[in-house]
Specification:
Its EC number is 2.4.1.255. Keywords: Glycosyltransferase, Repeat, TPR repeat, Transferase. This is protein O-GlcNAc transferase. The protein is an alpha/beta fold. It is about 55% helix and about 5% strand. Among the domains are: about 190 residues, Alpha Horseshoe (Serine Threonine Protein Phosphatase 5, Tetratricopeptide repeat); about 140 residues, Rossmann fold (3-Layer(aba) Sandwich); about 180 residues, Rossmann fold (3-Layer(aba) Sandwich), CATH 3.40.50.
Length: about 775
């Protein structure tokens, strides 16, 4: 309790003749006995204060034996007994004191303490209330009665009494802080902040007050003020773990990752077993591209026992996945699920990892999906009726909701922007449910296009589903699948009568109640429908339509074919390392063996450090591609990444998980991608994009065919140069960049689904089940 000094006992002496109803004069012998009893009691009080409880008890008993009507000695003896958990004997002492002086408030206060210590809270409340009736200025009784109300979760009574106490004792810092804590609990943060600041006026260096001020300011998004307050706290309490930790979170939320690392390092230096700090340190290192340091921090966190250990296990798994160590990844996700079988982020991370295709067959992936589905069904009670207007009501717009954590500068945002911009708002009313707060240029462009924009990042699944249900959404579209920041468990509640998976994921979600998956017949052939829990709704052409990158001086035109100047072919790849398996490297090596002058330009975000570049280079060398033929680059701006295509003649796709966004962006920069078609959606997406770009001759059907086509295209520079010069215009005229045509197809799909739902609903009404 802030500022409170609990008076465990009273140190006053026996009242003299002026305050007690005793004879005006005492016999000398009696006066001597009273004096000796007082002396023994004072000695006992000092012993009790120093923690010498047994000796204190003995002195109190001696005082009572000399002066049997010494009420205060009985009271303080009860405290000594209570501290030794001799509750029955302590109660006897208080009863004896009550017989001697029934109007003494401290007797009832200590009876309350005795009851409180035994968790008899109703009795404790009654005794504390009696004490305050007798002595309305007993500060300790206020404290302990408020505490008891809090223990019994009677927050209304606690708040009312604390308010009265603060009014009575306005200079009592402990009460101000207690009241501020109660206001914080009630989420009355402005009131709490005022009270904490009042306390700081009286005690400017009160560390706990500064801590609470910092915490509230951070929660209100006043990050500059919160940072200053945490720094002030560290001046007062330089070893305060929480200050360093929360300062780190302030930096993290502003992407000030170098400063975040420094703060978290100071936090773990103070508290080496702080698993959450090690976890956040790993996240900060990861955001800086320092993957070795991130892995070490995640592994440290995983070895510690803390509430959110599953977060560390999944993050370690994701890092291992992102550095191409897929087999190690699965063990991390399974360890997280052993701790918490309902940690759906672990399931999603595992399914996303398995969707890369080189670890399991489509059938084995389905087995894992079924396990995920069974857990969802335990927790989600699906809606069966909805608040949206009658399905057959004419002349109303469909309410279409989108759920994503990527409403911003992200591949999902790049594909979504022009579709949203071209939706016919006479037919559809759009709602966004953002599972990750983003605030960038793309967010600013698309946000006004939605009739409603709600953040569900910190809302539990059931509450998020209820929000969507209350909004009367007709069709709810998931844009994430099992990728980061997904809210697939929300869909298991079936908050909308129709639910659709589209755009961000190249496999089935397995979510019960996900009615459809939007696809094209190349990415999901008819004979692959069995691999999906959703019904496939086929679009007339591509399922993906990219918003053209903004043109500028750097990107306004397509560069000339670099091979014409270099006299050698430069193959390129901009794929995430997690897609780059040994099978891919072996096949690429066959191409480089056949083309000894060819070079490789490889770029991705994981290659931001010399350590990661060396690891990747070693992998290439192990597969027979010599180091001098390879150039590697780390992360950069989107414009710089697109401009880098000027150095590349041909993109080599990865497999079985091929490119999507990178393939479309390469079209824009005039660079074709060589793809190897596979046996699942993730390995057919590239074939789909190439087909709809009119580049069917860039799709290989076998390993040998892949090598053959690479050499064929690379050795016909005239044809390659002509393709480069025309590819942007070709794709702009086709479905991959034709947002208006794609959006009409998209709208027709949603309206078709809705029409089918209307007819099915009408049929159910006309022919109810017996």
């Amino acid at each position: 309790m802030f500022g409170k000094i609990l008076n465990l006992f009273r140190s006053k002496e026996v009242p003299g003749p002026a305050t007690r109803a005793t004879p005006a004069k005492q016999e000398p012998q009696v006066a001597e006995q009273v004096s000796k009893a007082n002396s023994l009691k004072n000695q006992a009080d000092n012993l009790l204060t120093s923690g010498t409880i047994a000796q204190a008890e003995q002195c109190y008993r001696e005082a009572i034996s000399i002066h049997p009507t010494f009420a205060d000695a009985y009271i303080n003896l009860s405290v000594a007994l209570r501290m030794q958990e001799q509750y029955a004997e302590a109660a006897k002492m208080l009863n004896q004191a009550q017989k001697l002086d029934p109007s003494d408030a401290y007797i009832y206060y200590n009876k309350g303490m005795l009851a409180k210590g035994q968790a008899d809270y109703s009795s404790a409340i009654a005794e504390f209330q009696k004490a305050l009736e007798l002595d309305g200025n007993m500060l300790d009784a206020y404290y302990d009665l408020i505490e008891t109300y809090i223990k019994t979760e009677d927050k209304v009574a606690a708040h009312s009494l604390a308010s009265a106490a603060v009014e009575k004792f306005p200079q009592e810092v402990g009460l101000l802080l207690l009241m501020a804590n109660l206001e914080t609990d009630r989420k009355q943060f402005d009131t709490a902040l005022r009270l904490y600041n009042l306390a700081l006026v009286m005690q400017p260096d009160h560390a706990d007050s500064i801590w609470h001020v910092s915490w509230i300011l951070q929660g209100q998004g006043k990050l500059a003020e919160a940072e200053a307050s945490y720094r002030r706290l560290l001046e007062v309490a330089p070893d305060r773990y929480e200050a360093f930790y929360n300062l780190g979170t302030v930096f993290t939320s502003q992407s000030r990752n170098e400063e975040a690392v420094t703060a978290y390092l100071q936090a773990v230096a103070i508290k080496p077993d702080a698993g959450l700090a090690h976890y956040n340190l790993g996240k900060a290192y990861s955001d800086l591209g320092k993957l070795d340091e991130a892995e070490a921090s995640f592994r440290t966190a995983c070895a510690l026992d803390f509430t959110n250990r599953t977060w560390a296990l999944v993050s370690l798994g994701n890092l291992l996945r992102d550095t191409g160590r897929h087999s190690e990844t699965i063990a991390c996700y399974k360890a997280a699920l052993e701790i918490d079988p309902d940690y759906f982020d672990a399931y999603s991370s595992m399914l996303f990892n398995l969707s890369f295709g080189d670890l399991v067959t489509p059938e084995q992936y389905q087995d894992e999906v079924r396990r995920y589905t069974s857990r969802l069904l335990i927790h989600a009670q699906a809606y069966t009726t909805w608040k949206c207007l009658p399905a057959n009501q004419e002349h109303r717009r469909l309410r279409v909701g989108f759920v994503s954590g990527d409403f911003g500068l992200h591949p999902v945002g790049f594909f979504l922007e022009n579709v949203i911009r071209n939706i016919d708002l006479r037919q559809m009313e759009l709602y966004a449910y953002s599972s990750k707060v983003r605030d960038d240029a793309l967010t600013a462009r698309i946000k006004p296009l939605f009739s409603g924009w709600k953040v569900i990042e910190d809302i539990d699944d059931a509450s998020a589903a209820h929000m969507i249900y209350e909004d009367g959404i007709d069709i709810l579209i998931d844009l994430a699948g099992h990728t980061a920041h997904n809210r697939l468990p929300v869909f298991a509640f079936k908050p909308a009568p129709l639910q659709v998976s589209w755009l961000g994921y190249f496999a089935t979600t397995g979510v019960p109640g996900m009615d459809y998956l939007l696809a094209d017949r190349i990415s999901v052939p008819d004979n692959h429908n069995e691999y999906f829990s959703e019904q496939i709704w086929y679009l007339p052409s591509t399922r993906l339509c990219l918003t053209p990158p903004a043109t500028n001086d750097l990107l306004s035109s397509v560069s000339a074919l670099p091979a014409l100047k270099n006299a050698y072919i430069t193959f390129g790849c901009f794929q995430n390392i997690r897609k780059l398996n040994d099978f891919t490297l072996q096949l690429w090596a066959r191409i480089f063996q056949r083309m000894p002058d060819a070079k490789l330009r490889f770029q991705c975000w994981q290659l931001g450090t010399e350590s990661e570049r060396k690891k990747m280079l070693d992998r290439f060398v192990q597969h027979g591609i010599s180091a001098e033929r390879i150039s590697m680059f780390g992360p950069g701006s989107r414009d710089a990444y697109l401009a880098a295509h000027a150095e590349v003649d041909i993109i080599l796709d990865t497999f079985p998980y091929g490119g999507g966004t990178t393939t479309c962006e390469a079209f824009w920069m005039g660079v074709p991608t060589l793809n190897l078609a596979g046996d699942r959606m993730s390995s057919l997406q590239g074939a789909s994009l190439l087909t709809y770009a009119g580049l069917e001759d860039w799709i290989a059907t076998s390993e040998d065919d892949y090598v053959r086509r690479a050499i064929l295209h690379a050795t016909d520079l005239e044809k390659l140069a002509q393709l480069r010069a025309t590819l942007r215009e070709r794709t702009l005229a086709g479905p991959i960049y034709d947002a208006k045509q794609f959006t009409r197809h998209f709208e027709q799909a949603l309206l078709g689904m809705w029409d089918k739902h209307v007819h099915a609903s009408a049929k159910d009404v006309a022919h109810p089940n017996p």
